[in-house]
Amino acid sequence: MRALLTLAFLLVAGAAQAQEPRPTPEQYREDAIGIEGLINAQYAYLDRFPAGVMPMTDTLRAEAAAVHDSDSLLHYAEHALTALADPHAITGSSFRDDWAITPSYSDLWVEPGDAGWSVTAVREGSPAEKAGIQRYDALVAIDGAPVNEAVRRFWSDLGLDAANGRAAYAARVLAAGRRDRPRHLTVLSRGETREITLDNLYTVHADRPPLTLSEDGGSLVIRFNDSLGDDGTIAAFDAALASATPGQPVIIDLTDTASGGNTSVARAVMGWFVDKPAAYQIHNLPAEERETGVPRQWIEQVLPRPGKHHDGPVTVRVGRWTGSMGEGLAIGLDALGAHVVGDPMAGLLGAVYDERLPNSGLVLKIPSERLYAVDGTPRERFVPARE
Q1: What Å distances lie between residue 293 and 13, 37, 52, 206, 352, CA to CA?
Q2: Residue 1: what pLDDT?
Q3: pLDDT tens digit string along 238-289?
Q4: Considering the domain boundaries, does residue 363 fall inside one?
Q5: Which residues of 289-327 are buried (b: 16+ CB within 10 A; e: fewer)?
Q6: 3-state class of 98 per DSSP?
Q7: Quick one: 38 and 170 in the same domain?
Q8: Tell me: the pLDDT tens digits for 111-164?
Q9: Is 57 inside any structural domain?
Q10: Which residue in 69, 175, 344, 385 is deepest, having the highest Cβ count within 10 Å?
């Protein structure tokens, strides 16, 4: 009888949940209008903007006022976060034709130069690399539009201009393309102009293990295959280090960790290289100081892992597709004495908190903690040694 009553209760509860009313148009609109205040309360990097608040325009405010359902709310939320020009600030939901998330789904790093837009890095194994695009090629046009014009249109649709670092952000997003279609790029390579069509990275699926192991001059090379968010990576790394000979040099390759990950995996990796608690990262929470007037900052430590320790020298390889937790792992290993080498990292800002809008439940992922190396260097400004 008790089982029948429990089943009946679950069915009634499920039916009540299924019949829960959708938000009204006014509630969707309330969520949209509240996004500006939410970002100004929670975003950790407001000092990037001249006025110390998120960029807001008449165009964006008019869009917020016109929100009436879930789709229009999501469109507006995406636009509001785009205004931050911060690839680490995204929505928890998306449309199939949205712009690709960078750097997770990008394969070209482009930067402005005296003569236009230069490709300064190409992702290994990507459609761009397979098409023959090389470092120092020039990106001339995207979908037939000169890059500067494409960038201008990207921002003018939101009522913004390309000042204050927004141009480079937009150029990299545009080069990554839409999620549901190929990209059409014009590239100047070694004096030859080429029209190139590239698959977007949402259609490229590689079945790879969490780690790839190899040897290089007697060093054990452990390459992470964008796997810092996979808890199974811990067991794979443990097995890899267990195979190392005592004192063997280890190279940890983080050049393909653009999607970031979680601190459990990172701390499991670092735990192999300490024999007592050691600081690896500083956290700062501006939102708490804004709310209370009392600053908050703390140091996170990595702890030894019983039965798991390696004494050999450690080198860490990084690059433009070392992102988020990959960057955290790099600065943490640097603090523990590893030699970090390679190109600049992705420079993603802070640690992301999920903020759920009250009426619709839409999640905004906002960088809310500032992160620093243990010497006080902002994580996004960490400079590796040249290899």
Answers
A1: 43, 18, 17, 48, 22
A2: 47
A3: 999 999 999 999 999 999 999 999 999 999 999 999 999 999 999 999 999 9
A4: no
A5: eeeeeeeeeeeebbebbeeeebeeebbbbbbbbbbbbbb
A6: coil
A7: no
A8: 998 789 999 999 999 999 999 999 999 999 999 999 999 999 999 999 999 987
A9: yes
A10: 175
Phi, psi of 38 (to 5 degrees): -65, -45
Separation of alpha carbons 140 and 186, rounded Å: 5
pTM (2 d.p.): 0.90
Same domain, 375 and 235: yes
Query: Both 159 and 27 in a single domain?
Result: no
Q: Is the peptide bond before 246 cis (omega within 30 degrees of 0)?
A: no
Contacts of 114 (CB under 8 A, 6+ apart): none
The answer to the question of residue 31 being in a domain is: yes
Asked whether 313 and 339 are in contact (CB, 8 A), the reply is yes
Beta bridge partners of 253: 223, 317
Instruction: Give the strand pairing for 211-216 and 183-189.
Output: unpaired
* Alpha-carbon distances of 280 from 47, 227, 299, rounded to whole Å: 25, 20, 8
Average pLDDT of the segment spanning 97-123 = 94
Clarify whether residues 262 and 218 are in a common domain.
yes
Give the amino acid at 321.
W
Q: Which domain holds residue 323?
A: 211-348+371-381
- Bridge partners (DSSP) of residue 370 are 284
CA–CA distance, 104 with 106 (Å, rounded to integer): 6
Does 18 have pLDDT greater than 90? no
